[in-house]
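Researcher: Quick one. two chains, 409 residues in total.
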Amino acid sequence: MKQPKVKTLKLKKNNLPLFLNFILYNEIDSVDESVYSYPSKRVNGREYYVNNDKHISTIINYDIKFDD
Amino acid sequence: MIFIFSSKDDFTTNKVCDWLRYYEHQYIRLNKETQNVRIEEFDLGNDLIILNIEGYKINIKDITAVWFRRGGLSDVLSEWNDPIHIPKNLGIIQNILSHKIKNEINQLALFIQFKIENGKNIGSYFNKGLNKLKMLDLAKNEGFKIPDTFIVSKLDELESILSKNEVVTKAISDGLYEFTDDTAYYTYTEEINNSTLDTFSDSFTPSLLQSKIQKKIEIRSFYLVDRFYSMAIFSQKNKKTSTDYRKYDSEIPNRMIPYELPSNIEDMLIRIYEKVGLNTGSADIIVDEENNFYFLEINPVGQFTMTSTPCNYYLEKEVALELIRIKNETTKGKDPKIKKE
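Model:
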């Protein structure tokens, strides 16, 4: 499986809490379009992945319905 | 009726809702992003509080089981501030009035939250942000080993500790976990050593340091009412994950297996949960080479899917079944149907 391209923010000398000197970031790798099926309707969902294996967020649009 | 406090993009809530549908139990899910929430009636003498949530009139007496996952009434009722017009000619008191109104609404929201939860809840708004230092102190008093823990704000103090200990730093509250449209930003537990000192000023914002435990395994243990669902994570031998296993190595994934905590460790955790009034949470524990169990923290609203999936625990199903059990116990089978007005 592909390894995520994680980077660390480069900070200048600062007086932040120590843990904030280690901010990691990476681009959202992929967005999957999904269809969620419920008893009353089927709706559109978008699943965001930071990398190939770590799912970070799902946004479901309940306004979009599909005709069966 | 089952009532769930959550946020609209919480994947774990979606899964629990799927199980509730499978078992054919109605529920109301109030996401923190929901805007159309009003108080329809409030008559404390007659014990009558009716909420209107996007057209659904909910008498809170009909709420018979509650899962607090995210958000809460304070988040959704705070929108009331928007239509309130404070006269602009009040000078400095204008801001004071704005704070005062927020406090009024918040106190009202907190009371209704309290009435909704009312002892029939899994998780609680009132325990959503446990103090990490308080939990470490509690764990120590209950007999757990904890890592040596320091708060430092001066570089020379940090250097002095570093000369005697290997240390890690982490947030005192929650780490950073923010997503923009195309980038994810986050912080984990990080090791501090002499090579990382250059960016720190002579004095800095108070920061949490803990001694680095040479771990044999890490344990993530989900607790639900009276049962533990624990997972052992073999993260020590991989450089990427030895300080924080959440830095997944997807090429050589950590081995994660179901694990049974010793009964004395479970007893200590139960006493901690009872002391803070929690009936669910995820505890992070480290076991060192000498089989000492070190308590790290309890997350009351953590993502338990990360424990559920590798161990086949089906925790989302267990949460749904517990909500149904609480509901049946409260209603004795007489649960009113949810109707839109």
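The longest strand of chain A covers residues 55-65.
Researcher: Thanks, that's what I needed.
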